[in-house]
Amino acid sequence: MFRIGIIQYLGDTTFGLFGGGNSSSGRTNYTDKYTYSNNTVSAGTVLGQAITDLAATGNSTVGIFGGGNGNSSFSTYTCKYTYSNNTVSDGTALGQGRYALAATGNSTVGIFGGGNGTGGRTNYTDKYTYSNDTVSAGTVLGQARRYLAATGNSTVGIFGGGDNTTGSYFNYTDKYTYSNNSVSQGTSLGQARTGLAATGNSTVGIFGGGYNGSSYTTYTDKYTYSNNSVSQGTSLGQARGFLAATGNSTVGIFGGGYNGSYTTYTDKYTYSNDTVSAGTALGQAREELAACSSTANGLT
To answer: Which residues, other chains included, contact 180 with Cβ-Cβ below 8 Å and sequence gap of 6+?
Structure first.
């Protein structure tokens, strides 16, 4: 999830934010702040609602956590996290209540897409404009599905994977162009799966983990935006699904998830040489969480 044009939040104050999810004690509003420069984890400010199966994106100033399963199974709720002072306030509600959605965007807008709503799996998208906290309907995705993942650069967002009502697992991707709100089919991922996560920088997106119908996986896909090519990336250190991911321009952090039990485990994926190492554990074990970053989701 991911952006451009940042001056503040460089150096030690640059962090990823993991929020919400489902823990052994139920839904949570807990947040973890992952500082990239020294791989430290600290508790952030709690979200406004305990919620699971949500999505998150943002720019260099704020992160928006939206949708999910909270007080209602199909939530329109959004929470606005301001990085500079770690404050949380209610954002503008999404246009359609749903859970198991995904989100990405650029420095101006975030796109929340897919999920499971009152009518089942959906291809609906919301366009969240950060400057004035307005929400409007975006262009629908090419396939209705839930438990998908999304990442992108300043121009396009890639929504990939997920599952549908017939129990099929997808390697399908949608390419969402922000400038004209157009959607086209992208290049398929190398492995069909649900409950995966994604992050990246301005050049590549990494889709990692998930459930492939028979097992949790460590598999990663590397999506190169310039030519819409997909290749296999380096495997994660722990197989799991229903995890979250975010990062900066150098590294992506895959955190939390489920592999028979809730986990605090994190993977640190270095884009330049496709290496993976264990990161610092999150403060609370949980699945179905979401993540965003104070580096405009990785583009700086």
So the answer is: none
